[in-house]
Amino acid sequence: MQNPVPILFFTLLFLIFLHQSFAITTTYNVLNFGAKSDAKTDSAAAFFTAWSEACASTRPSLVYVPQGKFLLNNLQFKGPCNNKAITFRIDGTLVAPANNNAANWLAFEEVDGILIHGGILDGQGAALWACKKSGKSCPSGATGLVIWDME
User: Fold this and answer.
1) In a domain, 133, yes or no
2) Could you report the per-residue pLDDT of 97-134, keeping only the tens digit for each?
3) Structural domain of residue 86, as residue ranges?
4) Of 76, 80, 81, the residue nearest 107 (C-alpha)
5) How many domains does one find in the chain?
6) Among 41, 55, 71, 78, which one is least packed by beta carbons within 10 Å?
7) Mean local confidence (pLDDT), 52-57
8) Is there a domain that residue 35 lies in?
9) 3-class DSSP state for residue 18?
10) Conformational region of residue 113, where left means phi above 0, alpha means psi within -120 to 50, and beta covers everything else
11) Span of 55-69, 71-85, 93-107 with lowest mean pLDDT
12) Does 12 fall in a domain?
């Protein structure tokens, strides 16, 4: 009869590795950090805090933006992060400030392995284009989304 100890040992080792490969994702819902979905209140600080916690985590992370309209002034999501498994999921709308006077509205920099999907980016360009059509002196407008130095 074979010794069952090696079989049990390798089975246990396999289960441990299998469990680690299905690591649980930590969700950072921007509402839990004070974001307001009213399209009027600047939620940049709440988004930045949710991002900072996801970036600092060593576990797979999800920054979650639920349905609603979230006003965001200029915001930079910067790495490097402690993990390469961050998902930025947008089920709502990100709304730019109405003044159209920012160089870069949303920027991701040095964040390897990020997945960004879903949602709507509302740069509020209609007022800017109406101003430009009128021939008045208008702001230059903002670059909506900038992605730098990422793999």
Assistant:
1) yes
2) 887 666 788 999 999 989 999 999 998 888 888 888 99
3) 25-148
4) 76
5) 1
6) 41
7) 97
8) yes
9) helix
10) left
11) 93-107
12) no
